[in-house]
Amino acid sequence: MASMFSSSEISKTTSTLFSAYASFAGSMMLVRSMANELIPHQLRSYLFTTLRYFFTPLSPNLTLAIDEKCGMTKNQVYEAAELYLSTKISPKTERLNVSKTRKQKHFTIAIEKGETVVDQFEDVKLTWRLVCTEGQKPHSGEKRLFELSFNKKHREKVLGFYLPYVLVKAEEIRNQDRMIKLYSRQCPFSDDDHDRRGSWGSIILEHPATFDTLAMDPDLKKMIIDDLERFLRRKEFYKKVGKAWKRGYLLFGPPGTGKSSLVAAMANYLKFDIYDLGLSSVRSDAELRRTLLSTSNRSILLIEDIDCSSEVLGRQIGKKNKQEPAKSGLTLSGILNCIDGLWSSCGDERIIVFTTNYKDRLDPALLRPGRMDMHIHMSYCTTDGFRLLASNYLDISSKHNPFFGEIDGLLKSTEATPAELAEELMKTDDADFALQGLVSFLKRKRDEDNETKNKATDGGEVPPSIRRLNDIVSRIKRLKTDGDKRKIMTTKRKRMANGRSGLRRIQY
Ligand SMILES: Nc1ncnc2c1ncn2[C@@H]1O[C@H](COP(=O)(O)OP(=O)(O)OP(=O)(O)O)[C@@H](O)[C@H]1O
Ligand SMILES: [Mg+2]
Question: Which end of the chain is less packed: N or C, by CB atoms within 10 Å?
Answer without folding.
Answer: N
